Amino acid sequence: MSIGPFKRRSSWPSSLVTGLIGWNGFFIIVGAALGQARQAGKLFVLGTAAAIVEIVLLRLLFFVMHLDRSKLAGAGWGGLIGGAVVVAELWSSQIFAAHPIIWIANGVYIGIAVGIFLGYFYRDDRRIESEAKEHGRPVDYGRDAHWLEPFIFGVIAYLIGFLPSTLDLAVNVAVVGAMSGVVAAGVSHFFVFSIPRKSFVVPVILSVLAGAVQGALTGLLFRTFAAELLGSVLVHGAAAGSLTYLMTSLRATQLASKEFVVGHKETT
């Protein structure tokens, strides 16, 4: 059975998606925190351009830069490229003019994170493939094959929670939702996979409560759009966060149950 490129985290398409999520996510979030939420469209374009430049350079020079061997190499080269890209964009746009140091620092941070993830995804995929070959079984990336789902859940949940009526608000909501989704996946993983219980009801409830808190905090990022919303940004945020965590925790429950069944069969 063939494995699609988006289920293999180290593929070129997955690398591009990783870069796009990281760059646009933190460009939009930092922009909102700095009161530039209504410039989300421009930030999205600049973030997309930065992501493409970094991913192409890192992928083409992947082995030359030793990203396949070292987290430090991924962090170093990623941060250097990320900072350089933002410096270059400072010359082409005035959108960063009010806070250049913050934006350059943001670019370095994003670049470091993307560099580390690209290296980690490569090494982890090779590990999984090596173990499958050693045991003479088909390659199965397991939970890792579903790495994009939390981002999608977050986008859907936040669009439902905020019901944006303008493009700027929709872009902000979708990007923040995507980033919230991956955090939700991490928290849900802890509650669902790490707490030994016969029932997943309590872990799911705990996940949803955590989502309400996180969602309310992210709601503050949309304060510029308060007049366009039906209620308080905190209420919208809490609803969106709760729904995000509900979706991701239920999906984690399904995957955990599947892993339990497979593991039980292998041991019997």
Supply the key terms:
about 270 residues, mainly alpha, 2 domains, 8 helices, flat
Describe this structure in words.
It contains eight helices and no strands. It is mainly alpha-helical and 268 residues long. The chain has two domains: 12-142, no CATH class; 148-267, no CATH class. It is flat, with a radius of gyration of 20 Å. The chain starts with 11 loop residues before the first helix and ends with a helix.
Question: What is the element layout, followed by pairings?
Answer:
Blueprint: H1 12-33, H2 40-60, H3 71-92, H4 100-134, H5 149-162, H6 167-194, H7 201-219, H8 233-267
Helix pairs in contact: 1-2, 1-4, 1-6, 2-3, 3-4, 5-6, 5-8, 6-7, 6-8, 7-8
In short:
The chain is mostly helical and 268 residues long. The chain has helices spanning 12-33, 40-60, 71-92, 100-134, 149-162, 167-194, 201-219, 233-267.
Which strand-content bin applies to the residues? under 5%
Helix content: over 70%
Order of helices and strands: HHHHHHHH
| Total of domains | 2
Quaternary structure state of the chains depicted: single chain
Q: pLDDT below 50 for ≥5 consecutive residues: which ranges?
A: 260-268
Number of strands: 0
SS element count, helices: 8
The structural class is: mainly alpha
Distance from N terminus to C terminus (CA atoms, Å) equals 25 Å
Mean pLDDT: 88
> Based on CA inertia axes, which overall geometry fits?
flat
Rg over CA atoms, rounded to whole Å, is 20 Å
How many strands, which pairing sense, and closed or not: the largest β-sheet? none
